[in-house]
Amino acid sequence: MKKQMEKCHILSQRGLGAGIFDLVLRAPEIAAEAVPGQFVNVYLKDHARILPRPLSLCAFDRTQGTIRLVYRVTGEGAGTEELSSYPAGTELPVLGPLGNGFPTELDSVCAVGGGIGVPPLLALLKAVPGRKTAVLGYRTAGQMFLKEEFDAAADAVFVATEDGSFGTAGTVLDALKTLPVQPEAILSCGPRPMLRALKQYAAKRGIALWVSMEERMACGIGACLGCVTESTETDAHSQVKNKRVCKDGPVFRAEEVVL
Fold it and tell me: What is the DSSP string of 95-143?
């Protein structure tokens, strides 16, 4: 799959609340190659920040030549805070699309996302032709985002909040257990504890599971080995039981990796 460095322009940027920002970039070359589940490396204007920011694709439009990135500001002084300050018209170098994506030729899927793992599942649901369900997890109703767009993209949406302020009280696993019919396949993105629990849940029920992993990245192209995760098979590149999340992932079959 072709990847390239493209000079992209910000078309719009807005806050979604709780430190979440919605960024749309003019990026026709990247949009033409992108598939759901991939990510891009965004290079900031502050050249003191050598490393790019890896951000998942929330959506892309091949006709309009745009990509959409929904991301969280990780703290004061962080690169994502700088990114959130850029106005429309700002030019940024962006490398992508990177990594591999989710399978989309499935008859019935359940997309399960937690926190900032929610955005990449929106592009996935728009691409799946069959029946699709979404289970979304947030800490509280006040931190919920993209819910209306998931309502439009999925046949059914279930929400779990840790404090019980909306939907099922608890985790995405608690919401999964309330589904009238258990899914044939689960495609997920979120923090490692959530993915670990999903792996146990799916294994007990014989449900196929794909996980999109979140790891700190440096190069984003598999050269630096900065984002390796333990795997269940020997990697042809490193000759040890490791997978490079940026290159071999970020999407894996659950049985490929140790969570």
Answer: EEEESB------SEEEEEEEGGGSTHHHHHHHH--SEEEEEEEESSGGG
